[in-house]
Amino acid sequence: MQAGLRMRRRLARTTPATIILPTIMLRTTIRRRTMPRMISITPVISITPVISITPVITIAMTSIATTTTITTTTIPMLMTTNEPAPVAESGGMTEGETAALYRLMTWLSPAFPVGAFSYSSGIEWAVEAGDITDAASLRGWLAAMLADGSGFCDGVFLAQAHRMAFRRDHAALKEIAELAAAFVPSRERQLDTTTQGRAFIEIARAAWNSAGLDETVAACDGAIVYPIAVGIVSAAHAIPLEPVLHAFFHAVTSNWISAGARLIPLGQTDSQRVLAGLEAVVASTAGRALQASIDDLGSATFRADLASLRHETQYTRLFRS
After folding, report:
1. What is the separation of C-alpha 135 from the centre of its chain, rounded to a whole number of angstroms?
2. Whole-model pTM?
3. CA–CA distance, 302 with 79 (Å, rounded to integer)
4. Interatomic CA distance for residues 260 and 275, integer angstroms
5. Which residues pair with 26 in a beta bridge?
6. Domain(s) of CATH 1.10.4190.10: residues in the chain
7. 70 CB contacts (<8 Å, ≥6 apart)?
8. What are the distances in angstroms from CA 231 to CA 72, 122, 225?
């Protein structure tokens, strides 16, 4: 009996005790209690997005004289890998698509020498008359020209010329070219579009000649306006119509904004804001022109047409139209 009491006191003095294992820390608590012997194991597992597992195991060992509670906590382990995260593979461009993009970016760039910088399409008179005074009014004026004026009509002519040239339907192409030239509302705009059309064909043919282009140009048999020129040259190089329309409208809009920026005047940042604000109008107009037929042609921008007429007699001028 005395030996048993001494052992109980010795065990009581050792509570609590900590035992450190390589990856497991044990904390042992022994209390004097009289209960039946039992062993219970309660695992608790917590999983976080980084895959961290923390099991907690409780073991209760009881004899008539003692109760031992062992709590085991493992050190959380972060499951990682040294391999980089997979990157989505982007689709590459074919050789033909790369060539088409390169040519469109060149032909419809402000640096392409068709003389677009010298024409304002009547914007110069609109500024002098007070119709255009700042970035907001310039944006409104150009949005109307794009969606309801010469912009949309030129897009329809370009699309029709591209289709006829691609099919080698020279008779239909000649009719489209004649109608496009007749649709120009003023002598100044006629000078603007025919001069650019002729320059576009001559320079594109000199640098990027294509089989059949000379025959297609000869089939028009007369003055070729700018949208017709872009349509037949891009068709001769088998460039799809939809990107041609978007690039054409971007080029025309950029040239109009450049004229307005010099006339109002506007800073470079405001000019880019106007271009950004017209992005949706350019996209929607290109989509309409792609689906339109000749019967859908029409203009409702009478003030812009009047501006191109009155520019001819304007007292001081920076632009040719």
Report:
1. 24
2. 0.72
3. 70
4. 12
5. 19, 72
6. 95-313
7. 26, 27, 28, 57, 58, 59, 61
8. 79, 24, 10
The phi-psi region of residue 122 (left if phi > 0; otherwise alpha if psi is between -120 and 50; otherwise beta) is: left
The secondary structure of residue 116, as a DSSP letter, is G
Q: SS3 for 266? A: coil
Residue 32, strand partner residues:
66
- Reported residue count of the chain is 321
CATH H superfamily, domain 95-313? Urease accessory protein UreF (1.10.4190.10)
pLDDT digits (tens, 9 = 90+) for 222-250: 899 999 999 999 999 999 999 999 999 99
- Please say whether the beta carbons of 112 and 192 come within 8 A: no
Task: Say how far residue 66 (Cα) sits from the centre of its chain.
Answer: 74
User: Tokens representing 265?
Assistant: 């005047």
Q: Tell me which residue has tokens 């089989």.
A: 211
